[in-house]
Design a protein that fits this description.
By secondary structure, the protein is α/β, with parallel strands linked by helices. It folds into 2 domains: about 190 residues, 3-Layer(aba) Sandwich (Rossmann fold), CATH 3.40.50; about 120 residues, Phosphofructokinase domain (Rossmann fold). About 40% of the residues lie in helices and about 20% in strands. The protein is built from 11 helices and 13 strands. The strands form 3 sheets. A 7-stranded mixed sheet has the order 4-3-2-5-6-12-13, sandwiched between helices. β5, α4 and β6 form a beta-alpha-beta unit. α6 runs parallel beside α11. The relative contact order is 0.18. It binds adenosine-5'-diphosphate.
Length: about 325
């Protein structure tokens, strides 16, 4: 966490970066309207770091944020920018921000985006306050990230539908949810969706476990089962599991990969509320001269967490939830 002289702060920039998440628009809206309320001008930087390099920078007014709170995606567009890993590109971005009179930034994104903001501070002293936005809920220092609840609910709706067909045809289904590096989405979807087993990078597929579970269920008359898996390093992991179940246990399983539908859709009340609170506080903290940090949720408190801490790996204690999944689906 650092401080800067915010006395003469007149204009800030806001951008969304990395993977998009439902609720980002509510976060942009809150940043813009809180800043204007505090007599600060706000410029939108489109396409994340690429827009900083390409000067895609435009003023935003109160009216620019009309009718966006309920929309998924991000009206500022998002994306990944390879060039930002190079010092020359970052120098150009910093110059463009200075030319546009932008003195500080609100970054809505994941840990990668915060790494970019951290380096922009270290090299060019451009102060940033972060707002954690990613469906994966994997940002250290915050129990919640914008988009997670919407993504889990989208996956749940799909599972409820799959359950209808699974039950009608006595089927074993493997549902693949998002989550490349961690299993937050999978474990919550598994528990709330009544799955028999859940797999994710920290707790990979175990053939014997599944065979035992399915057989035990069959003995008491259970005809259908749902397994939930996180996608892991490459989407399509569910097919690998299905193949193993067929080759090694003679089980025939249907696969459903939910994919990008989990990123879209109208944000839930929780995502809109947290997004609004994160961003409003981010603007306030910036105006107090704090930077190189993000806003996070710890218990019921909204707090500032340094980027140094935010970019560390978030510890994931899933054991208790996993036990519950197993007990409740026996
Ligand atoms: P997320 O913010 O969702 O984690 P990424 O990891 O893709 O998404 O990061 C978003 C962007 O942030 C990258 O495309 C890149 O432009 C920038 N970025 C990420 N890591 C760094 C870094 N170490 N140095 C500079 N820029 C970075």
């Amino acid at each position: 966490m650092n401080t800067f002289n915010a006395k003469n702060l007149k204009r800030i920039g806001v951008y969304t970066s990395g993977g998009d998440a439902p609720g980002m628009n509510a976060a942009i809206r809150a940043a813009v309207r809180m800043a204007i309320f505090k007599n600060i001008e706000v410029y939108g930087i489109f396409q994340g770091y690429q827009g900083m390099i390409d000067k895609q920078i435009k003023p935003l007014e109160l009216g620019s944020m009309a009718n966006v709170i309920q929309r998924g995606g991000t009206v500022l567009k998002s994306g990944r920018c390879k060039d930002f890993h190079m010092a020359e590109a970052r120098a150009l971005a910093a110059q463009n921000l200075k030319d546009a009179g932008i003195q500080a930034l609100i970054c809505i994104g994941g840990d990668g985006s915060f790494r970019g903001a951290k380096i922009l501070w270290e090299e060019h002293q451009i102060p940033t306050m972060g707002v954690p936005g990613t469906i994966d809920n994997d940002i250290n220092g915050s129990e919640y990230t914008i988009g997670f609840d919407t993504a889990v609910n989208t996956a749940l709706e799909a599972i409820d539908k799959i359950r209808d067909t699974a039950a009608s045809h006595d089927r074993l289904f493997i549902v693949e949810v998002m989550g490349r590096n961690t299993g937050y989405i999978a474990i919550e979807v598994g528990l709330a969706g009544g799955a028999e087993e859940v797999f994710f990078p920290e707790h990979p597929f175990d053939l014997q476990r599944v065979v035992n579970k399915v057989k035990k269920g069959m003995e008491r008359g259970k005809k259908s089962s749902i397994l939930v898996t996180a996608e892991g390093p490459t989407p399509g992991y569910a097919y690998e599991i299905a193949q193993k179940l067929k080759d090694e246990a003679g089980f025939s399983a249907k696969v459903c990969i939910l994919g990008h539908i989990q990123r879209g859709g109208s944000p839930t009340a929780l995502d809109r509320m947290v997004a609004s609170r994160f961003s409003a506080l981010a603007v306030e903290k910036l105006l107090q001269g704090h930077c190189n940090a993000m806003i996070g949720l710890q218990g019921t408190s909204y707090k500032m967490i340094s980027f140094d801490e935010a970019v560390q790996k978030k510890p994931f204690s899933y054991e208790e939830l996993l036990d519950l999944v197993n007990i409740l689906s026996q």
